[in-house]
Amino acid sequence: MKNLDDLLKIKGVFAAGSFSDEGNLTGFAGDISEDHAAMAASMSAANLHMARMQTDGYTAMSGESGWTPATGFALAGAKFTVCVKNNVGVFMRNGEGSFNEVFKALG
């Protein structure tokens, strides 16, 4: 598993967490409460499952490879973005960091 404290060193990242495939919180660090981290873990697992289902469908419908396996996603809002890969995610402030750097660190 990625070191959550190391992820906090990335410019723009203010919280990081890890979760099980079932959506249970397995660790968190940064400027986030445990309750919010647990809610984010549940949301992240659900979105990752949906991404996997969608990429399986895109592959089947298009006949094109390259969609699977889905290993992560990003969800952007007006001020913040969550980036998730392989059951670890970070929250970052929009415009303060690099998605490329974040996803590279997430592995």
What does this structure look like?
A 5-stranded antiparallel beta sheet has the order 2-1-5-4-3, sandwiched between helices. β1 and β2 form a beta hairpin. It is globular and about 45 Å long. The longest helix is centred in the middle third of the chain and has 29 residues. The relative contact order is 0.22. The protein has a single domain, classed as Dynein light chain 2a, cytoplasmic (Beta-Lactamase, 2-Layer Sandwich), CATH 3.30.450.30. With 107 residues, the protein is of the alpha+beta class.
Properties at a glance:
globular; Beta-Lactamase; 3 helices; 5 strands; 107 residues; 5-stranded antiparallel sheet; 28% strand; alpha+beta; 38% helix
What's a quick, concise take on this entry?
This protein has 107 residues and is of the alpha+beta class. Helix content is 38%, strand content 28%. It has one domain (4-106): 2-Layer Sandwich (Beta-Lactamase).
